[in-house]
Amino acid sequence: xxxxxxxAHSALHAKPSGLVLQYGTAGFRTKAExxxxxxxxxxxxxxxxxxxxxxxxxxxxxxxxxPEEDNGVKLVDPLGEMLAPxxxxxxxxxxxxxxxxxxxxxxxxxxxxxxxxxxDAFVVIGxxxxxxxxxxxxxxxxxVTVLEGQFHDYGxxxxxxxxxxxxxxxxxxxxxxxxxxxxxxxxxxxxxxLTKQPFCSEEEYRSLKVDCANGIGALKLKExxxxxxxxxSVQLFNDGTKGKLNHLCGADFVKSHQKPPQGIExxxxxxxxxxxxxxxxxxxxxxxxxxxxxxxxxxxxxxLISRFLKELLLEIGESxxxxxVQTAYANGSSTRYLEEVMKVPVYCTKTGVxxxxxxxxxxxxxxxxEANGHGTVLFSKAAETKIRQLAKELEDEKRxxxxxxxxxxxxxxxxxxxDAISDMLVIEAILTLKDLTIQQWDALYTDLxxxxxxxxxxxxxxxxxxxxxxxxxxxxxxxxxxxxxVKKHKLSRAFVRPSGTExxxxxxxxADSQENADSLAxxxxxxxx
Length: 529
Ligand code: 16G
Known about the structure:
This protein is α/β, with parallel strands linked by helices.
């Protein structure tokens, strides 16, 4: 390791003195102009992580649904998952080291994590469509090469595509081929097999309008279009040719404002969906005949998928256990429907995909979705083997067909991370196979009216929570105040938590009417303030 070269190159990516950033829920995220040094250092860190795990590590340059001016970076661990928590700490200390301390902090990580410097390192890099992303990804590459790591730059890819590449490379291609083509082929093969079956519905159901948030999703869907066009016709809006990334469009906008994105032409009862800026989230929606907007968020996506999987298992006659993982933001009606009507166990974790992903790994089939539309389904190795075996060996034709469907669904999910493209194809396949309209899907249950607010406080970290963020621990008295407010309404629930991505406190409230949810959210905000 050439410390002199590391310092010399670091000077080209100098850290603004005094700037402190945190590896948060989904990596570092802030204004793009503050990130050059972080990118270089994450290149260094990715090499160390690669040497330590003897595996390929991913680095994704993106700020997901944040405004165009922001950017961010996150590392992807060997199995395509989020970076391990102990390495998040290393990432934070490396990013915040002042120039002169950089070699010392680097050595400290090498010792603490027992990194063998003789080991080879391989890093894969991807980026979203932000103007700042190309230059920033070059800084990552600079960090990788100065530590003599090998790398492959995938260029413009969605975040879930990069997760997929990492997993493919570390499983010797067993999960799929580690190319963008390989990704399209794997997903489209499963999708086309699912939708070609004779009991599938008519052509009219097979068209979908997609708001691509003016982001990478548009590019990738255009590339993929011809692979799936026999089964689904997609019409792209906000494809980045005119509008600004995530501006008045995209999954986060639609979910938080509960209204259609700008730039999409919607007719009543047409099925529409929105991706976010790096295509790891998806929400669906439609306008009814009276012009009312209906949002189908991550909770309803999880419900549709779990219902379908449960029915398939019943048809196959196999008792694999299914668990659904949500966060405190899940609408109370969804949890009730899953537990009471569908009889599926539901678990709640802290916000952030890594927490849900981890919990979902405990089941044969773990379905996890955040209400904001980020989620996927994980199949345990044992469940996967069983499903593939049943699809091959069952003699009863009906059961065998159901097992084959389940096998294709398994292949269609991106099991490394929530993936808007993969989730969209799964949903489209289920709607087709079940002959369900978007209205019928929406009618599974009725969401409780809810409201989310942001509160700016002097120090959001004074608020700490427990019970998967549903109860406040500090400051003293706040939980009692919230509980008293909640008691004033029917079917009500409220919680507050410090945001992991913005300098604010988030307030969530739901109740029997929109008016009550709004007034509860306002009262809770005042209690926080
Ligand atoms: C990040 C998380 C998302 C979470 C959101 C919460 C990942 C990949 N993304 O975007 O899952 O819902 O943060 O943000 O984990 P908040 O802490 O500001 O509410």
